[in-house]
Amino acid sequence: MKRKLLISLLGLAFCLSAEQSEIQVKRYAEKYSGFSMDLGVGYSGLSIDFTYTLPTSTHVTSWGDSGVAVQFRIGGGTGFFDYWFVGLDSYAQYNSVKSTSNYQATGGVAKIHTFTLPCNLGFQGKIGFVYKPSNMIFLLGGPDWALYSFKDVADGFSSSQFNVGARFGAGAEQKFGEHWIMKETFDYAWFPSRTYGHGAETEKVEPRLATFLFSLSYLL
Q: What pTM was estimated for this model as a whole?
């Protein structure tokens, strides 16, 4: 009899513990709801497909480089179904990366082209899964507007304009305290090609940008 009573009490304790754990996760998801501000610092890698066309020849190559990325992000979201989170963020990002291509044109003329994406901004939808009371994994996606800055050094030609592409990513975050969150995010952006024509030559540039960030977020 005593053994049965003990087994029953242990079973009840286990059920209460599981129920309490589930409630904690649910409360965590609810507490995760709200407005947040992020500041992130990390790495951005710029890669370019480049086509340089002269009246007598065409030069096709790929080149790129890496640099520092700094991003400010604001947004908000809400928890639902105990383990899930959905939100929408807007962001602005600075990229220090500068890519340079050197090409020996006909007649021995050295052609130097530089291309930068000094800033990009956009909106991203976010969906996350809370797999522990203070840990989440998430996916991001949305449009991205990037500032193209192209220069033909030898000819003194330069051009700058915004172009819209698509940016997708994934990451993880860890919540500590009531308001603070650490995030690690990787995302990749594709942008449309742009053709620059001046004189008898044209340059076609098609950029892509990879970004890895460590961010600190404050949840209001």
A: 0.80
| pLDDT digit string, tens, across residues 131-174 | 887 889 999 999 999 999 988 887 788 889 999 999 999 999 99
Sequence-separated (6 or more) residues with CB below 8 Å from residue 158: 149, 150, 151, 152
Whether 24 maps to a domain, the answer reads no
Q: Looking at the 3D structure of the chain, how many domains does it have?
A: 1
Q: What are phi and psi of 5, to 5 degrees?
A: -65, -40
The CATH number of residue 53's host domain is 2.40.160.20
Please check whether residue 189 lies inside any domain of the structure. yes
b/e for 6-30, b at 16 or more Cβ within 10 A? eeeeeeeeeeeeeeeeeeebbebbe
